[in-house]
Fold this sequence. Notes:
Layout lengths: L4 H22 L9 H33 L1
Helix pairs in contact: 1-2
Amino acid sequence: MIKSIKGQFVLSLCTAIGFIYFNFSHIDFVGNNESIFTRVLFFFIMILSVFNAGILTQKYVQTRNKKKN
Length: 69
Protein backbone atom coordinates (compact mmCIF):
# COMPACT_ATOMS: atom_id res chain seq x y z
CA MET A 1 0.00 0.00 0.00
CA ILE A 2 1.30 3.40 -0.95
CA LYS A 3 1.06 5.73 2.03
CA SER A 4 1.74 9.13 0.47
CA ILE A 5 -1.03 11.06 -1.23
CA LYS A 6 1.26 11.90 -4.16
CA GLY A 7 2.09 8.23 -4.75
CA GLN A 8 -1.58 7.23 -4.63
CA PHE A 9 -2.40 10.07 -7.01
CA VAL A 10 0.21 8.99 -9.57
CA LEU A 11 -0.77 5.33 -9.30
CA SER A 12 -4.48 6.06 -9.71
CA LEU A 13 -3.82 8.29 -12.74
CA CYS A 14 -1.73 5.57 -14.39
CA THR A 15 -4.45 3.00 -13.68
CA ALA A 16 -7.18 5.26 -15.06
CA ILE A 17 -5.20 6.02 -18.21
CA GLY A 18 -4.50 2.31 -18.65
CA PHE A 19 -8.16 1.37 -18.37
CA ILE A 20 -9.19 4.09 -20.80
CA TYR A 21 -6.54 2.99 -23.30
CA PHE A 22 -7.54 -0.66 -22.97
CA ASN A 23 -11.25 0.05 -23.37
CA PHE A 24 -10.97 2.25 -26.41
CA SER A 25 -8.35 0.21 -28.24
CA HIS A 26 -9.28 -3.41 -27.48
CA ILE A 27 -13.03 -3.49 -26.85
CA ASP A 28 -15.56 -3.01 -29.60
CA PHE A 29 -18.75 -1.65 -28.05
CA VAL A 30 -20.72 -2.17 -31.26
CA GLY A 31 -20.84 -5.79 -32.27
CA ASN A 32 -22.19 -9.15 -31.27
CA ASN A 33 -23.88 -9.66 -27.92
CA GLU A 34 -21.86 -12.72 -26.90
CA SER A 35 -19.58 -10.99 -24.41
CA ILE A 36 -21.63 -7.94 -23.45
CA PHE A 37 -21.07 -8.62 -19.73
CA THR A 38 -17.28 -8.32 -20.11
CA ARG A 39 -17.61 -5.10 -22.07
CA VAL A 40 -19.93 -3.53 -19.52
CA LEU A 41 -17.75 -4.73 -16.63
CA PHE A 42 -14.62 -3.13 -18.07
CA PHE A 43 -16.54 0.05 -18.86
CA PHE A 44 -17.73 0.39 -15.25
CA ILE A 45 -14.24 -0.39 -13.93
CA MET A 46 -12.92 2.39 -16.16
CA ILE A 47 -15.50 4.84 -14.80
CA LEU A 48 -14.71 3.89 -11.18
CA SER A 49 -10.98 4.19 -11.84
CA VAL A 50 -11.34 7.69 -13.29
CA PHE A 51 -13.64 8.68 -10.40
CA ASN A 52 -11.06 7.42 -7.89
CA ALA A 53 -8.35 9.42 -9.67
CA GLY A 54 -10.53 12.53 -9.35
CA ILE A 55 -11.07 11.97 -5.63
CA LEU A 56 -7.34 11.51 -5.06
CA THR A 57 -6.63 14.62 -7.14
CA GLN A 58 -8.92 16.60 -4.84
CA LYS A 59 -7.20 15.19 -1.73
CA TYR A 60 -3.76 15.97 -3.19
CA VAL A 61 -4.71 19.58 -3.99
CA GLN A 62 -6.22 20.07 -0.52
CA THR A 63 -3.08 18.66 1.12
CA ARG A 64 -0.84 21.00 -0.89
CA ASN A 65 -3.02 23.99 0.02
CA LYS A 66 -2.81 23.12 3.74
CA LYS A 67 0.99 22.89 3.56
CA LYS A 68 1.23 26.35 1.96
CA ASN A 69 -0.86 28.00 4.67
